[in-house]
């Protein structure tokens, strides 16, 4: 890891806040819908009105359980709720209901491809995952010399699962790979939509360095970079922070023993990590078990039934696509990384067309490219899996060549309809063998040099005739044309 | 005719037979309040017009032959710790001086569904912290038996308005004895139900794991009628018990089977137990013995730890529950200009000043105790230890109830004390809870009933305690006692 360029190793642990895909909040029945007008999705419970009491949303517990099981966590038989006390204007109760010493998910791990060597994997261990409610949002308007602050409490009580990793990552690329794989897993499980721009997935990174010096390993003080909401930000923030810490260490020589953890933010515009206001002393959250909520006891039956009903994980899907459809690891990877919708699409096309490899190649090239161009997801893609399967089936059966098939595909994208309708609209007709044979003979007769070249072993010479054949009859299948030409030359020889 | 505001049972009979209208009963109650309250000060708010309108609606529905609730037309007062949409809910604190709750507490909704007529909200110690109703921000309540004495607390107003004959029924709340001690001081009957028997939704929290709403009335029969109306599980309160609610008024005319009554000798020999209170307890024992009950001595080995345990747990939870009063969302907000916010900045200055200005001394004292007990480094020493002792206290009761059906003893160490006598000595005030906090820590039901008068003609209360969910047993025994004695019929002169 150590090199002249980078005379240190980066140590990274991540805390990922995932908004669970429930329709209602964690402790009341208010909607979690994003983008509602401020303070409309609120009730006495999420506003922390005097006398109001929380009631757990069982669906959130179920989603957390699914996530924990997929991450290989241990599910303790009992989990409870704690109050984390701090004063903040967007925290209406003066405490956040969270989980302190008995989280719903204990331990676990996530296996990722090693960014330094794609053929290798790395296992990132997890410490825990716990449920908690989100706080509201403060908006500060300091225009006109006035310091107006407005508070939107719509987000208060939104269910979050905080997934905490061990400090097992050693590069910004690894952190990004971890987040990418985690997001993929969460969307496969359908436990979160992971919409980062809507705050459904937020990341804090704990970063420090290990520096080798005179045979000793020195650790720099830990910095927590708060609330990043894009993978790009995470990657850049970590890379920047590592440099910053190295320079700071060169200047000050301070190590982890000399300084407590500090909190930094990521300034995306300036592309640098910036210290947030230093706390005068360590935060004292004065945790206490929430007396308004009962502990949750998850029976072995519930846990096992949930485990049995879990959706397929991406890692399993990658293996299965290779085995079931005989496609390459790389291709399986591309398809699986596009999400569960693309995997389902691929499988439908592969089965419907009877040609998995062709399906894989078309999806990776034509389908994904078009999706990207149009900015649509597979759910909104204009050509259905059944239609593409039918089209590719005709290619495999030799009824259409790839070029004509692409024309049909383009037509389907633009105009919709069935494969048959597209073929008709494009005037594609199959050419019978006798007709091709006479066309071959005609062109061979007109091009004796080609015949000569083929006889001399230069098979590719036929290629020059294909263009001419296409001009005479655009429906000619080049493969068929080529084969018949070769047969004619051979039989004439 | 005389309108019997001292008995809900009699009122219900007259209302049912048509001899009396709900409007007449309500008007009588309002007139009585107008006459007594200038001296007693039991009410923080009297809802004259709404009460009369509710009464008229009940009368109309009765004339129309529509079904009516079990308390149809009975005037009732509600402690100002319970949320109401049509009256302010202040907790007798400057903090909530103008607070209008957007919702009704579940018990209030149930009273309305039972067609009780809610005439007003009653005074209390601020946020239910106190044993004399002297910590109310809105003036003291006096004891109807003698205006120089306190009515007890924190449900002092709820007890005094019944004793003064304003209403036959009221709702109080009991965290460490706040129903039973004022019931004893005012010569009425009060019941703290099993924790979870009555919903806490809309009961502004003091100490969530100890708080319980309960009925206050002249006798056990009326308490049972009121308990019928408010008890039962509530989906809005996770800690409400999922159990059937029996008819608490059934079988009150007899005691089923042999009654074994436990006496805690340690309590009867407690230092500071007033001899007249001791005598009343001895007399009550004889009443039960004469009625055929078996008297058994039992031990509660950890009862010396009740008060210390309570005064760690209750303030800890209170410090957390009262965090929400930060001046940001509702309640008192101190106007703080950025220019005079000082070093702390306007936000922290707003918190500090709002809380500093609006909370009284006792509330601040308990917040400080609770914050300390929960703070890092002390949580294990105080709070966690108190939770462990609490479990032992519950075990003591479980063991005792192996051998007896009920426990009998004093409610308070002394008869009603004078205004100002203990208000500057918090420890003396806390010792008022000596015999009552055990039931809250253990979550068991407990009842206070009139059991004698001192030589100065002041009421003395007798406490009965039962195993969880045995309210019917408590009420049966109290009703039997009230058939054999006439202490509950004594009225202030």
Key features of this structure:
heterodimer, A: 493 residues, alpha+beta, ten-stranded mixed beta sheet, three-stranded antiparallel beta sheet, 17 strands, B: 493 residues, alpha/beta, 11 strands
The helix/strand series of chain B, from N terminus to C terminus, equals: HHEHEHEHEHEEHEHHEHHHHEHHEEH
Average pLDDT reading of chain B? 96
Largest sheet of chain A: 10 strands, mixed
Strand share of the residues of chain B?
A: 5-15%
Which structural class is indicated by helix and strand composition of chain A?
A: alpha+beta
Major beta-sheet overview of chain B: 11 strands, mixed
Quick one: how many beta strands of chain B?
Answer: 11
Uncertain runs of chain A with pLDDT below 50, 5 residues or more? Answer: none
Number of helices, where a helix is a run of at least 4 consecutive DSSP H or I residues of chain B: 16
Q: Overall pLDDT of chain A, averaged?
A: 91
Tell me how many strands of chain A there are. Answer: 17
The span between the termini of chain B is: 21 Å
The portion of residues assigned to helices of chain B is 25-40%
Mind telling me the C-alpha Rg of chain B? 22 Å
Low-confidence stretches of chain B: none
Q: From the structure provided, what is the oligomeric state, counting identical versus distinct chains?
A: heterodimer
Largest interface: A-B, 30 and 47 residues
Shape of chain B: globular
Going across the major beta sheet of chain B, what is the strand order?
1-3-2-4-6-5-10-11-9-7-8
